[in-house]
Amino acid sequence: MITEEEFAEKARNFLAAHARRKDEAGDDQESLEADAVARTKAFQRALFDAGLAGLTYPVEYGGQGLSRGYQEIYTREASQFTLPTNAITISHGMCLPILNDFGTPEHKARHLRKIISAEEIWCQMFSEPGAGSDGASLQTRAELDGDEWVVNGQKVWTSGAQFCDYGLCLARTSVDVPKHEGISMFIIDMRGAGVDIRPLRQITGDADFNEIFFTDVRIPKTWLVGELNRGWNVAVAMLMYERLALGAGGAGPMASRRFDRLVDVARSHSLTHDVTIRQALADFYIRETILRYVGLRMRDALRAGRAPGPEGSIAKLASAQLAVLGASVAARIAGPAAIAWTGNAPGGDQIARGVLAAPAIGIAGGTNEVQRNIIGERVLGLPKEPSADKGVPFKDLLVGTQRRG
């Protein structure tokens, strides 16, 4: 087996040849456009061919079968580079581990290798127009018809659906039990008949996420992931992985070096000696460092074979707050240049885009309010919020867009 020192050198050499260092000029925030997806696929395929992808996944499914310590080494080395992997954040950060944890041997044999190499890109479909933060109120239905499931309904805010091959979708399979108990998880062919993907334009001008309509979508009976009517357990695990990916445990703020970028902005505006700017930078550095330590704690738990607990919500909330703070500090440093820049200014729109995009992080992966509820209950020991629908069959609830006939 390759030693950790040899592995670190191998990863370092690969990244130097295939990625751009973060201290080089250029934008490290990549939109999910077609050319970006092509770059992602090319990079990930090269990573796979070099034996540096899927480090902790079983060899028989395309992984390397290494310990989490090797993943930690790669993450540390990769933190110095801007990687063209935005298009597979969900595919690798959420769908891949869920299929590994809950998928059947057939699911794994068919898909894991292709996900690891980015031959296939996946998305997740939870939210609906009437079921956002209260995801268990979802109304997309899956009904068994012989050897096939027939899916009808609508999903919204699905990142990357426009270029994905498959997705993991929560659907209601029973209305005669309480809302959390009648949900199942399914694999959906995103290019199959009856799947209609429509882009949603964001305030930044990008269209990174979508609304999806299912009309009599037929999928094999075997595409059920996990147990029938136990899909909420799968969803909870998936949300944990999402908070790792978006918070401090994955390639989020831990690897983003936002403080370094803020210092670069301050230098470019000759404000590194301004006392108030220095105080703002110091505050940001402290918060980012604390988040990094939370992330280390989360990764240590994973390394020991334990699922992180409420640390995921702490990291997710802190990450969302840090994104808004970072955008605010950058705008404060840039002044008028944050909203009006010359045409020859390289990356002149980055700060404006950051200001516009930052609040969305407090929604994606569970709102800040949801994270605070989790922290209050599981960390502070506060009582749970009243639940008037506890034990009530879903068909008797007036939730979302559901109404009694």
Description:
- The protein has 405 residues and is α+β, with helices and mostly antiparallel strands.
- It has three domains: 4-84, no CATH class; 123-229, Butyryl-CoA Dehydrogenase, subunit A, domain 2, CATH 2.40.110; 247-366, Butyryl-CoA Dehydrogenase, subunit A, domain 3 (Up-down Bundle), CATH 1.20.140.10.
- The protein contains twelve helices and ten strands.
- The strands form three sheets. It has a four-stranded mixed beta sheet.
- The longest helix is centred in the last third of the chain and has 29 residues, at 275-303.
- Mean pLDDT is 89; it is low at 249-255.
Give the SSE layout.
Elements lengths: L3 H15 L1 E2 L12 H16 L18 H11 L2 E2 L6 H14 L2 H12 L5 E4 L15 E5 L2 E12 L6 E7 L10 E7 L5 E6 L8 E12 L3 E2 L5 H16 L6 H4 L1 H11 L6 H29 L7 H24 L15 H8 L10 H11 L27
Parallel strand pairs: 3-6
Antiparallel strand pairs: 1-2, 4-5, 5-9, 6-7, 7-10, 8-9
Helix pairs in contact: 1-3, 4-5, 4-6, 6-10, 8-9, 8-10, 9-10, 10-11, 10-12
Key attributes of the depicted protein:
single chain, 405 residues, alpha+beta, Butyryl-CoA Dehydrogenase, subunit A, domain 2, Butyryl-CoA Dehydrogenase, subunit A, domain 3, four-stranded mixed beta sheet, four-stranded antiparallel beta sheet, 12 helices, 10 strands, 42% helix
